[in-house]
Amino acid sequence: MTVLGSFVTAVLVAAATGDSAIVLDERKQLFLDDYLIASMDNVDRRIQQAVKHPNNPVLAPTEPWEGTVAILYGSVIYDDDRYRMWYYAGGNVCYAESADGVHWDKPALCLVEVEGRKTNIILKRDPENPFPHFYAIFGVQKDPREKDPSRRYKMGVLSLQRDYEGPRQDPFHGGQRRGLGVAASPDGIHWNVLDDWSTEAICDGGTPATRPVLLKGSTVHVNAESDFGEITIEALHQNGEVLAKSRPIQTDALDAVVEWESGSLQSVAGPVNLRITLKNAQLFSI
Questions:
Q1: Cis amide leading into 130 (omega within 30)
Q2: 3-class DSSP state for residue 228?
Q3: Which of 48, 119, 138, 203 is most buried, with most CB under 10 Å away?
Q4: What are phi and psi for residue 205, nearest 5 degrees?
């Protein structure tokens, strides 16, 4: 069986006979699904099992400010002919670089010093820093579409305020405010806060809201895991009026239909915002 030859034949059939041809350019096309495939004859799709590198772990805590663990609670990207890593250690965001993704260097930067030594810390958990509510990093990405070069890199973090007495307290942690903070950087090293509370949706409860959306039809489906909690969805007019509110969604399903407790989407003609309340639940898509 010649797997590659069979795949190429299938791709040509898909591009030649489809209603609209799929453009094949310099970008690689991975045969992980049937996006390019019109038919397959005597071909099996086999996803090769990943093998861990024998040198694992390739990055370990070696500096006193890293504590006892270095966790990739962050990101690794290939950027400008090198691998770049942002990772979590000692309660801070640290930075490392590598030519091959296996051997890593921790550059001595001029951002944070510990006992007179330059470190590879780029964001320190400290109430006095520009990100006073920073608790842990979620990840970093490079945004090539960003028109502002000072915001080329974006970082998401968990923001945590332990002495919060205002509205919208965390329902599972009394006296706290938790949410997603966002920072931006021109180079991945020097960061500025964009928003401490970009959203207050967190893994154990919160309320995100969408941008204005136009709904086609009157049925909403969700991919959710809320069998030990619940999710509710509200459709809001642009003036904030609640047009429809769902029944509590308690399911573990890929395509659950949202049932409306009050109001209806049938009479909604223009854009709406969807406000989603999560209580001990996870929402993957809508």
A1: no
A2: coil
A3: 119
A4: 140, 145
